[in-house]
Specification:
By secondary structure, the chain is of the alpha/beta class. Helices cover 49% and strands 14% of the residues. It contains eleven helices and seven strands. The strands form two sheets. The protein has a five-stranded mixed beta sheet. The protein has a two-stranded antiparallel ribbon with strand order 1-2.
Length: 258
């Protein structure tokens, strides 16, 4: 039994069907939206100052992001990137080149920029160990055309790649090093060192893999090989002439044409 004033669920259902039969959709939608809006407006929202108010959360916080952006801009936290002017770009390039020149001067004062002759094992230790990069040519005492060609190629590379210390040591002056080093493949051998420690040994098989010492391509091939194993870097500006990273491919094509 139902008390007086209560509406039976069937009556509500009949009212809804009656509205649907008479196409009263707009009224239904409006009523639903109004009810949803009233619910939103009754939600509690925490303000930035710690206060609590009843408001629509979709609009209550809309202004906060704008306030934060304005505050950050006022503090200098947000800056628009400005393109460099032509003068700024030239100034940056000059400073970069000046820094590079200072570094090159420091290297030259340490003996870089030439192929330095070592006369003993002790000389090897004292000269090579302090340098971050070193390229050392080890040859026998017999002078032949191959040794001369390799020596000349390294002399030219030393002038362009002042980032590395280039040295030449004859086997007879190597002392105990001649026993410690693996020389099974013969001489000449080029060693690449980092802080006095041998990292790579370039035996004759690797040195002359794609070009003989007398080949016009040998100097470029040697530069490419040293660069790959970390013996040299990009070098100074005129080092592009020895870049020759494709010298091996050029030599392969030359050999195929024969």
């Amino acid at each position: 039994a139902m008390s007086t004033g209560q509406v039976h669920p069937d009556d509500k259902h009949d009212d809804l069907l009656d509205k649907l039969r008479h196409d009263d959709f707009k009224g239904l939608v409006k009523s639903a939206n109004d009810a949803h809006g009233q619910q939103l407006e009754q939600q509690l929202c925490l303000g930035g100052d710690g206060s609590v108010t009843r408001a629509d959360p979709y609009t209550a916080y809309a202004h906060i992001s704008g306030q934060r952006h304005d505050a950050a801009a006022a503090r200098g936290g947000i800056t628009e990137p400005q393109p460099l002017s032509e003068d700024d770009e030239l100034r940056r390039l000059r400073e970069q080149r000046l820094s590079q020149m200072k570094q090159e001067q420091s290297w030259r004062q340490q003996g870089h920029g030439r192929l330095r002759e070592l006369v003993s094992e002790r000389d090897f230790v004292q000269v090579v160990r302090p340098h971050e990069r070193a390229v050392v040519l080890l040859t026998d005492s017999v002078t032949d055309r191959t040794v001369e060609d390799v020596t000349e190629a390294l002399q030219e590379l030393a002038k362009k790649h002042v980032e590395a210390q280039f040295c030449h040591l004859e086997l007879r002056n190597a002392g105990i090093m001649s026993i410690m080093l693996n020389l099974d493949e013969g001489l000449p051998v080029v060693f690449v060192l980092k802080h006095g420690e041998v990292k790579v040994s370039l035996t004759p098989r690797r040195l002359f893999e794609f070009a003989s010492a007398s080949s016009p391509l040998f100097s470029r091939h040697l530069a490419s090989l040293l660069r790959r194993v970390g013996g040299i870097g990009s070098g100074i500006e005129d080092a592009n002439s020895d870049s020759g990273c494709d010298s091996e491919e050029e030599e392969k094509r030359r050999m195929r044409r024969k």
